[in-house]
Amino acid sequence: MIRTWRVAALAWGLVCLALGAHAQDADTLRVGSKRFTESYILAEIIAQTAAPQLKQPPVVRQGLGNTAIVYEALRSGGIDLYAEYTGTIALEILQHTGPMTRDEMNAALAPKGLAVGVPLGFNDGYALAMRAADAERLGIKSLSDLAKHADLKLGLSNEFIGRADGWKGLATRYGFTQQPTGLDHGLAYDAIAAKQIDVMDIYTTDAKIDHLGLRVLQDDKQYFPRYDAVLLYKLDLPRRLPQAWAALQKLEGRIDERAMIAMNARAELQSVPFDVIAKDFIAGSGKAGAKDAQRGWVAKLFGDDLARLARQHLLLVAVSVGCAILIAVPLGVLVFPYTRVRAIVLGATGLLQTVPSLALLALLISWIGAIGTLPALIALTLYALLPIMRNTVTGLAEVPVGLRQAGTALGMTHPQSMRAVLLPLAFPTIIAGVRTATTIAIGTATIAAFIGAGGFGERIVTGLALNDSGLLIAGALPAAALALLSEVVFEGIEHWLRRAA
Fold first, then answer.
1. What is the C-alpha separation between 410 and 417, in angstroms, rounded?
2. C-alpha to C-alpha distances, 392 to 1, 55, 418, 421, 431, nearest whole angstrom
3. Distance, CA of 201 to CA of 126 (rounded, Å)
4. What residue spans of 336-445 are helical by DSSP H?
5. What do you get for the CA distance between the two ends of the chain, in Å?
6. Which whole number is the average pLDDT over 30-54?
7. Maximum alpha-carbon separation in the chain
8. Which of 187, 133, 138, 184 is nearest to 160 (CA)?
9. Would you say 239 and 246 are in contact if contact means Cβ atoms under 8 Å apart?
10. What gap in Å lies between CA 391 and CA 379, rounded to an integer?
11. pLDDT in tens, 354-405
């Protein structure tokens, strides 16, 4: 039991360190991005443009997810600004029924403590596209033409399907009867190239449109509004960091569609890192060096971010498992004597395992009004409770009746018997539960990157956005290695316990 509380105390210390580090970063510029190529690049451009005017380096929180998550990050103060699009602000964020001017947007955003500004110079609209050869064969040039071909299979991003300005309104306007399949935007390009789907939603600045020979279908009924790229920011940002804000004003009108497509192509087709693309853009160069363009998965595996991601992943696992020990072991001891209560508590804990991790993270963000490490730690802790609590109860139940009675015969009270007899004998089983919880936490922690909590999942999220298998491997392998290392450590602990017994 003493060992258990030491682990918990260490976990609490790590929580304090994490919170302290967060407090120290309160005055830095925090830039966010969504989970697609262009947003990653724009976040780096914003950060690098402002960096020379800041006392400390800006924090870039990449790949926070869809509009709802990154907007919540901005609203709750998790980030200070990110690149957004006017159509998304008007229809998705402000729930307006049509296009809005920038003044109208600012009037509606001001009560929320937000503002829009610095139009970057390009429009990145939604559209539907299909293979050009099939479009030619079927005589499809517009969305009205597409509506006549109900047999074609549509694979659309989940965000587009759910957006106010997405599939539902589009289907109503054009009379589509197809039922689309929800796909990750990056994976949809593979699916359409492999002829697994016939039509997908695209951003008009996507680099793979020409690369894969796709035809962008005309929006002949003008359903989609303009999606001009702008900065969506906290109202206090210009006052809090005036020099950095002045530097960001210089981005106004600097990026046209051709430049954005070229930068997206460097990321998706040449595997050039986002920060390099941003650096070259700011310097006025659009060319990648040969070394940057040919980075293999080994170079990505041992990239400069390896130590940072490992530290973040370990912190998430150690703190969440430690907190789960703090909760699950005492709770398991408390409910052990009461069969019915024990069944209810274990059942409720088991139900948590059935909640999809992304759904749980989204709910936590809504409930606590924050993104990043805190909701990730809460989710990981909840997932780690069941194996530890179940093994605590199982370990106590496996103590022979004779040994329990021996404690009573010696005049021990129930708490004394629990502390001196039952828990020491149940300790190996409890450790086995901690071992299982740790393995679960290592795997589940990769999902934390979807809300900006870092860890090896950061590479996996970026790899999905770029459809980069090398980056996916570079994220999956260290996580797998960490899981194997934890197994070795726990095997050593259990071997020591067997010898000590």
1. 9
2. 11, 50, 12, 14, 9
3. 7
4. 339-352, 357-368, 373-397, 401-409, 414-417, 423-444
5. 16
6. 94
7. 91
8. 184
9. no
10. 20
11. 888 777 877 787 788 777 788 899 999 999 999 999 999 999 888 887 776 6
DSSP, collapsed to helix, strand or coil, labels residue 285 as coil
Length of the chain, in residues: 501
Q: Distance between CA atoms of 322 and 13, rounded to whole angstroms?
A: 10
| Angle formed at CA 136 by CA 130 and CA 139, multiple of 5 degrees | 100
- Taking alpha carbons only, the member of 112, 89, 103 closest to residue 232 is 89
User: What CA–CA distance (Å, rounded) separates 216 from 322?
Assistant: 52
Q: Tens digit of pLDDT for each residue in 116-163?
A: 999 999 999 899 999 999 999 999 999 999 999 999 999 999 889 988
Closest alpha carbon to 330 in 10, 12, 5: 5
* Paired tokens of 91: 């229809």
- Three-state DSSP state, 116: strand
User: What count of Cα atoms within 13 Å lies in the side-chain half-sphere of residue 358?
Assistant: 10
Tokens (6 digits) for 65: 């997810």
Residue written as tokens 């510029």?
Answer: 29
Amino acid code (one letter) for 27: D
229-234, strands of its sheet edge to edge: 59-61, 30-32, 81-85, 229-234, 114-117
Sequence-ordered list of residues with C-beta below 8 angstroms from that of 27, at least 6 positions apart, any chain: 56, 240
